[in-house]
Amino acid sequence: MMNFGNLGHVETADEYLDIAFRQAKLHAKEAKVVGTQFQRIQRRELDAIATVARVLTKHLTLILEGFPKLDQLDPFYRELVRCVVDAAQVKQSLGGVNWGAHRVEAIFREFNDKFRGSRDENALLAHKRAFFGRISSVIKKLKSDFAFLEEARRTLTELPSIKTSVPTVVIAGFPNVGKSTLLRALTGSAPEIAPYPFTTKQMMLGYRNHGKERWQFIDTPGLLDRPLHERNPIEKQAILALQHLADAVLFVLDPTESCGYSIQDQKHLMKEVSRAMDVPVIIVLNKSDLASREQMELAAQNMQNAVIASAEEEKNIDHIVSAIGKALK
Ligand SMILES: Nc1nc2c(ncn2[C@@H]2O[C@H](COP(=O)(O)OP(=O)(O)O)[C@@H](O)[C@H]2O)c(=O)[nH]1
Ligand SMILES: [Mg+2]
Q1: 95 and 36, same structural domain?
Q2: Pocket residues: Cβ below 6 A from ligand 1
Q3: Are residues 172 and 312 in the same domain?
Q4: 34 and 181 part of one domain
Q5: pLDDT, tens only, 217-262
Q6: Which residue's alpha carbon is nearest to atom 14 within ligand 1?
Q7: What is the CA(258)–ligand 1 centre distance, in A?
Q8: pLDDT value for 161
Q9: Residue 152: partners with Cβ closer than 8 Å, 6 or more residues away
Q10: What is the pLDDT of residue 55?
Q11: SS3 category, 208
């Protein structure tokens, strides 16, 4: 599962500079220093630039450490993330933040020496202005990186929370063939709803205990319910993500065609989905309570191991369960 617990907001460049300079001021007021007046001022100013550098490096490091490493994610999430954010741009922006952290440290070291070498207050003030200018310009160069990373972070936190380590059955088939009804029949409860960042539809999740295993069922409206050529590139990418997640596909057909799609079209979609998913496919000929014998025979033609069932009347659900058990072995 994806964890964004340690990924805090990415602020704007101005906000980071404000935080750092505010902290430096606070710090300077509290510092108790001794020595001549010049030594006291020098000490204070050294403290101030050290605080600015420390606060900025801390915040930049938090971004670097908190942002999920895309290439270390579970393959499902890796593909899913690619649906919603530009992974190359994430890498580039994190690279920018890393550069910024190193620049801040280097500028601090340079000015630390200059401050120590200063012999009067005017020299010190000139260095101070130069330091603030250099630091501000580094942080401001990262303006668009911060903005991009914050937007990406927000998008990533909206990704559905799906278990990637449990046996997972993806339910497919044209609209109105009975997928949602079957999901309920198999899992015995109202499904969990997970938002789907790239469609207006929602993903339905259900769980079923089987022996010592816990199976996850996913209904993905909008993805595996129509022909491939009707899907846009993002939806195709989302299907790629599903390939990593699915251990089996439950393909539901409606032999009565009351769903509004001919059995030929439904079988065609089934072949397309089987090819795309590359995992065992369990075929369910649903609505057996409604289908005529001719409809069932036509639907069953050239199909091996199709399970005849009624999701609505919960008939033959146990046959579907044992077919899933076999497929998951
Ligand atoms: N007679 C009958 N109707 C069913 C069966 N399964 C689903 N339906 C009906 O078909 C319609 C579409 O079902 P739904 O589960 O929403 O389909 P989905 O769009 O594939 O999720 C609903 O009116 C269901 O009540 C079944 O086994 N028999
Ligand atoms: Mg449905």
Answers
A1: yes
A2: 173, 175-181, 286-287, 289-290, 310-312
A3: yes
A4: no
A5: 999 888 888 898 888 888 888 888 889 999 999 999 999 999 999 9
A6: 178
A7: 9
A8: 79
A9: 85, 86, 89, 90, 93
A10: 97
A11: strand
Cα dist. 45→16, 87, 101, 235 in Å? 20, 41, 21, 56
Q: Is residue 4 part of a domain?
A: no
Q: Say how far apart CA 75 and CA 224 lie, in whole Å.
A: 19
How far is Cα 252 from Cα 225, in angstroms, rounded to an integer?
Answer: 10
Task: State the CB neighbour count (10 A cutoff) for residue 213.
Answer: 11
162 domain residue, yes or no: no
Whole-angstrom Cα distance, residue 271 to residue 302? 12
The total of structural domains in the chain comes to 2
Q: How far, in Å, is the centroid of ligand 2 from the Cα of 251?
A: 13
pTM (two decimals):
0.78
Distance 222 CA to ligand 2 centre (A): 10
Contact 218, 203 (CB under 8 A): yes
**Enclosing domain of residue 60:** 13-157
Between the alpha carbon of residue 285 and those of residues 115, 208, 254, 266, the distances in Å are: 81, 21, 6, 11
